[in-house]
Structure prediction request, 61 residues.
Amino acid sequence: MRFLVSFDRDEDGVWVVECPAIPGCVSQGTTKEQALENIKEAIELCLEVRAEQGLPLTVEK
Prediction:
């Protein structure tokens, strides 16, 4: 499964990455590559938790 993610940098230069299709699924990293790896793990964990709680896995925007 593929998800679109958005990148931004905070005031300290840390990369913040979000998966808009999964509410609350956000991660970060000191490099863009690290942030991308971290959001992949966050997506897996968010989907797992949402499935366990009986929530819809994704939302359409």
User: Anything to note?
Assistant: The CA atoms of residues 4 and 19 lie 6 Å apart. The chain has one domain: 6-52. Strands lie at 6-9, 15-18, 26-29.
